[in-house]
Amino acid sequence: MGEKDVIVVVREFDHEKDRLGVEDVEKRCEVGPSGKVSLFTDLLGDPICRVRHSPSFLMLVAEMDDEKQIVGMIRGCIKTVTCGKKLSRSGKNPHQTTTKPVPVYTKVAYILGLRVSPSHRRTGIGLQLVRKMEEWFKENGAEYSYIATDSDNLASVKLFTDKCGYSKFRTPSILVNPVFAHRVGVSHRVTIIKLTPSDAECLYRRRFSTIEFFPRDIDSVLNNKLSLGTFLAVPRGFTWTGSDRFLSDPPESWAVISVWNSKDVFTLEVRGASRMKRTLAKTTRIVDRALPWLRLPSIPELFRPFGLHFLYGLGGEGPNAVKMVKALCGFAHNLAKERGCGVVATEVSSREPLRLGVPHWRMLSCDEDLWCIKRLGEDYSDGSVGDWTKSPPGLSIFVDPREF
Fold it and tell me: Which residue from 94, 97, 107, 201 has the highest number of Cβ atoms inside 10 Å of its Cβ?
């Protein structure tokens, strides 16, 4: 069947009419290779759950014109983020002015959840869905569009880079750590403070707003019901007296991280594991629960639906910042254990110095999550940056938890 033989209608998703058809396509797209371990996602009956917390979002479906059958879908959202920085002069006295970096923002769109039924692939449906979504992006003023895909997913990479005009842009790492049956110890030399959303916003805007992909509506993220809090690690004995005092006179070393409750959005499940692997995993949990003081690294129950917490807004300064991050990750692990999660995950730039403090299992993680980007228009609102698609990567990147 060739592309010209397939007649589909691409239209906006209707929850009442399309939910079951979309779930069917999702299941058929997630059929793993025979005899191999695969990761399945359950969207908990809400096909737009992974974009609905964004400022602006849309889901499209591809429907066979004659059969009224859903054969594909795509999700997209639009937000304003930092794409670079410029120097700004401050001070009333022109002879005593200082310069400081300030963020340059742009409106960017994000594509995720592109699916085409296996029986209708290589017919142009995926390309049709992407083009229709890009039309909506342009109508709503987005200047760039980007996607994230597994670098090993050659079909997806080829679609976007060869047919849709995207270019390879960034390669962050997804770091995943299991939640053990025992609690993880946190250094007694570190004090962990939970910040109020307003203090967290002040800290992020004043210290991290020039980081690439930093969302201008960070306040909406921090105040979202899925955000479990922002946590600051400081040396033991440090007294918190407010964000203004902290920012004007911080300790020598500190670190910050925020926690997002993805468990209430979707669950994951590992399928295709052999009986031997399942038995081994169960044995590690039994031993860990029986002898928790040994702190053995047990394998959580990943062969049934499990939830995760996502760590975002990772940052810090000072010679002991990596140790502070490690303490925060230990704290986050224990929080995830209390809330019944199977794993804790984060995504950071491959060049991020603080990633050394993030514990993770390599078998669960992804060293290279490929981000591809495309410029949608000829004019820029980010003139001081130029063409963002050609800019070199920085040390850090801000991964929005609403799109993980």
Answer: 107
CA end-to-end distance (rounded Å), the chain: 35
| pLDDT tens digits, 220-238 | 999 999 999 999 999 999 9
Chain length of the chain: 404
For residue 240, count other CB atoms closer than 10 A to its CB. Answer: 14
Render the burial of 162-178: b for 16+ CB within 10 Å, e for the rest. eebebeebbbbbbbbbb
pLDDT digits over 123-158, tens only?
A: 899 999 999 999 999 999 999 999 999 888 888 999
* Angstrom distance (rounded) from CA 237 to CA 248: 18
Q: Write out the DSSP string of 36-88.
A: S-EEEEE-TT-TTTTTTTSSEEEEEEEEETTT--EEEEEEEEEEEEEEEEEEE
The domains of the chain, with CATH numbers, are: 3-170+371-391 (3.40.630.30), 175-357 (3.40.630)
| pLDDT of amino acid 34 | 45
Distance CA 291, CA 108 (A): 50
Res 106: pLDDT: 94
The candidate with the shortest Cα–Cα distance to 345, out of 334, 335, 359, is 359
| 89 to 48, 106, 211: CA distances (angstroms) | 43, 21, 19
CB of 268 closer than 8 Å to CB of 342 = yes
| Entry pTM | 0.92
